[in-house]
Task: structure prediction
Amino acid sequence: MEERFLTVNVVTPDGLVYDHHARIVVAKTISGEIGIMPRHAPIIAPLVIDEVRVKRLDSDTHVDWIAVNGGIMEVRDDVVSIIADSAERERDIDVSRAERAKIRAEKMIEAAQAQDDVDQLRRATVALHRAINRINVSKHG
Result:
């Protein structure tokens, strides 16, 4: 019996970020974590800001980590397509830039709390979450 596998694509407005074959993909949806294997039923699920893990076909120990800033995951016919505002592989993350973004977001949160600005606080909290996610994913590289 032939081995089935997934084709995994991650696309952002800037283009294709990731395109590989995999045994399993694990992502975090708004309902919780989901694992996708070959022959998975078709689904469309909204993703939260988190890491996506892709266990590659070429090696049992080869796992790719991708920082995804929300988006949508569609699974159909052994193809996993993730469409996100932004996404970065662990090896492509500029850690010092992510650290600076984290510090900026923390300062924005303090300012928003001082001014009682709910909209600013929400934007700054999302920015902080994105920066922390990028830092965490970069540590897998």
In short: The beta strands are 6-12, 15-29, 32-36, 43-56, 63-76, 79-83, 87-89. The first strand starts at residue 6 and ends at 12. Residues 108 and 124 are 6 Å apart (CA to CA). The chain has two helices and seven strands.
